Amino acid sequence: MATFLYKLGRLAFRRRHFVALIWVALLTLAGVGAASAPAAGNTSFSIPGTEAQKAFDLLEQRFPGMSADGATARVVFKAPKGEKMTDAVNKATVEKTVKELRSGSEVASVADPYTGHAVSKNGTVAYASVKYEVSGMELEDSSKDALKDAAQDARDAGLTVEIGGDALTATPETGSSEIIGIAVAAVVLVITFGSLLAAGFPLLTAIIGVGIGVSAITALASALDLGSTTSTLASMIGLAVGIDYALFIVSRYRAELAEGREREDAAGRAVGTAGSAVVFAGLTVVIALVGLSVVNIPMLTKMGIAAAGTVAIAVLIALTMIPALLGYAGRRIKPAGQKSKLLGGGRTPKKPGRPNMGTRWASFVVRRPVAVLLLGVLGLGAAAIPAASLELGLPDDGSQPTSTTQRRAYDLLSEGFGPGFNGPLLIVVDAKDSADPKAAFTKVGDEIKGLEDVVTVTPATPNKAGDTATITVVPDSKPSSTTTEDLVHAIRDKGADIARETDSQVLVTGSTAMNIDVSQKLNDALLPYLALVVGLAFLLLIVVFRSILVPLKAALGFLLSVMAALGAVVAVFQWGWLSGLMNVEETGPVMSMMPIFMVGVVFGLAMDYEVFLVTRMREAYVHGEKPSQAVVTGFRHGARVVTAAAVIMIAVFSGFIGSSESMVKMIGFGLAIAVFFDAFIVRMAIVPAVLALLGKRAWWLPKWLDRALPNVDVEGEGLRAHADREEEKELVRA
After folding, report:
1. Separation CA 435–CA 438 (nearest Å)
2. Which span out of 148-157, 228-237, 283-292 was modeled with the highest average pLDDT?
3. DSSP 3-state helix, strand, coil percentages of the chain (rounded to 5)?
4. Among 318, 524, 534, 557, which one has the highest count of C-beta atoms within 10 angstroms of its own C-beta?
5. Mean local confidence (pLDDT), 317-324
6. pLDDT of 40 strictly over 60
7. Residue 169's pLDDT is what?
């Protein structure tokens, strides 16, 4: 592989005009497609195989006019202090608002608060339920504007009015902190390379790669039902790895120049060596992201595949466009150790020959490996302690910032009708095979009324055929509480008994039940997914490092970092530590998909640092150095670059902490802290300590396995043979 990539790097260096033209054409094509495509909406949420989804599908069949997947809105009214919603003036205002809401072209139905028993017991709060014929992502802006205008008219009349539901769901905003993250990355690159031009190349190629990836996602959003979160996460991961991959190749190019190589040959060798590490690091990330499809949650699958596509683009750009740009730069890119004149180049170093920080740190670790190993493991173990209290759930309007109308509507409904009113359970009774459907409906309602944590059970509402009915159950606890989850399981247990007695089927659905089923499905899939991803990557790393213990150490180190990162997420988003600093207004359960998403993404990113750092050690060992000296050599060449890459990735991920959407905020923080733990504690401390303790045993591989494995030559050993052959050809010609 190293020889092939060497030739590719030289070709891109020579044919730089052609390479640049291809990537600019792809960016233009993707941009035109994105500009002409419909805007991305919210991904339709379906969870195949769950009871909540089965009930939802049954409603589609038995209640065809119900618009079960249509957007909903709750317009919540609160009377001025000292007044009630039943007062004549306030009642007239609400009725006028209801009439105005019914005039919308996409409105399926509007429930009047006074005929639908939607006024609180103390009379201060009331709400009107609006049902639309289309989903939230298909809802026209004119319908949203009409909803807002109707609410504003009621406000002007003196009422407090807020709107909940998914009808007004907006595209999340990341805020200015994302730009700050890129700015931090630029500063780190300038410090690392000592050159504005060299620093600009990784940023330029990463932005082009993300531009192509996100534009392609936007262009396909309508056809593939890709939500706005999909492109946000793809840009987050694509930007981080795009900068890192380009950073490693540019850094290796400057190191090759420092050894006196010609620029074209240096570009080829940089792509042949560092590029090989980029390919395998990218493969581990792609495997981890595509592996999310095994969970069988369409939204998660789409997020993973879209992000994996962006990572693949980042790899291709790093291998081709970076050497092309280096060709354009010519002598303006200085060898390693030299700075541009603008940044102080040409000055005599104060202490020539002094070992760099990476060399000094690695030498310290090699001298005291046991102490460093124990300190690193104990530190990560302490950070992981909060993970034992992990509670999972999915965000609802209660987790929105208090500045949003959805959150204020949520709070008003909790105040007027109780916390469980924001998460009603929808019971679907399928009595098609029952001899007495009406009796079955009645029995289900009566049984549920006798359960704990139940406030209200509405009478059964049958369909036209009379074989299926819906019953709404309002819990006493809020939607995200474990008490509500226990109630869902209790209803399902009762439903199993009723099914045997009445030949009917009882299914529990609604957003709350769907969230509970999603959490359960993700919990069940976590271990199989972990085994699949870690197993495949373990095999890949055996091929790369030609060792058993090094990939095993890499996997165990990843588990340490991801558990510590989950502990930090629990401490901030569930316990509320530093919540003010992170702008977390509402603590609660951690998002259900957070553990499995972190496992996938963090594993891929963790293997990046493992590959980049340890391949340099492997290269030194293969070329004859002792194991302990190879560790120091690997750090001398790679520590500065890996540190810069980690800081850049942390800065990029931290930029998404400013997002207005709690899911994106949580993922941004989780990935940033995970990269910090993995890069600076696991890869920079635990890895060299373990390798120092193992010595030659770290690179042991059974002979039969060594013969069976393909030789991918990540260390670039084949480049020496290739160079020798080229020299022989030159001598023959001479």
Report:
1. 9
2. 148-157
3. 70, 10, 25
4. 318
5. 94
6. no
7. 66
Per-residue model confidence (pLDDT) at position 348: 45
Q: What are phi and psi of 590, to 5 degrees?
A: -75, 140
| Choice among 149-158, 252-261, 352-361, 568-577 with the minimum mean pLDDT | 352-361
Label the pairing between strands 461-462 and 392-393.
Answer: unpaired
3-class DSSP string for 497-556: HHHHHHCCEEEEECHHHHHHHHHHHHHHHHHHHHHHHHHHHHHHHHHHHCCCHHHHHHHH
pLDDT, residue 319, reads 94
Strands 425-430 and 392-393, sheet pairing: unpaired
Q: How far is CA 463 from CA 111, 429, 467, 468, 654, in A?
A: 18, 11, 7, 6, 51
| Residues 186 and 648: beta-carbon distance below 8 Å | no
Hey, how many other C-beta atoms are within 10 angstroms of the C-beta on 732? 7
Spatial distance between the Cα atoms of 10 and 12, rounded to a whole number of angstroms? 5
Token pair in block for residue 615: 């391949």
Query: What 8-state DSSP symbol labels residue 678?
Result: I
Q: Starting from the edge strand earliest in sequence, which strands make up the sheet with 72-78, in order?
A: 107-111, 125-132, 72-78, 160-165
Taken in order 315, 316, 319, 321, is the CA torsion positive or negative? negative
Taking alpha carbons only, the member of 144, 243, 126 closest to residue 189 is 243
pLDDT bucket at 519, cuts 50 / 70 / 90: confident
Q: Distance (Å, rounded) from C-alpha 264 to C-alpha 249?
A: 14
Between CA 485 and CA 692 the distance in angstroms is: 49
Strands (E), 239-372: none
Q: What is the pLDDT of residue 495?
A: 86
CB 519 within 8 A of CB 394: yes
pLDDT category of residue 349 using cuts at 50, 70 and 90: very low
- Pick from 665, 497, 510, 653: nearest CA to 587: 665
pLDDT tens digits, one per residue of 660-693: 677 778 888 998 999 899 989 998 999 999 999 9
In the chain, the N- to C-terminal Cα span, in Å, equals 30
Q: What is the mean pLDDT of residues 450-476?
A: 88
Q: Write down the number of H helices and E strands in the chain.
A: 23, 11
Answer whether 571's CB lies under 8 Å from 385's CB: no
Contact 523, 401 (CB under 8 A): no
Q: Which amino acid, one-letter code, is at 709?
A: L
Least confident of 245-254, 290-299, 322-331, 712-721: 712-721
DSSP string over 444-464: HHHHHHTSTTEEEEPPPEE-T
447: how many CB neighbours lie within 10 A of its CB?
Answer: 18
Alpha-carbon distances of 656 from 62, 396, 649, rounded to whole Å: 43, 19, 12
> Could you count the other beta carbons within 10 Å of the beta carbon of residue 393?
23
- Averaged pLDDT score across all residues of the chain: 83
| Over residues 233-253, mean pLDDT | 85
241 by DSSP, 3-state: which? helix
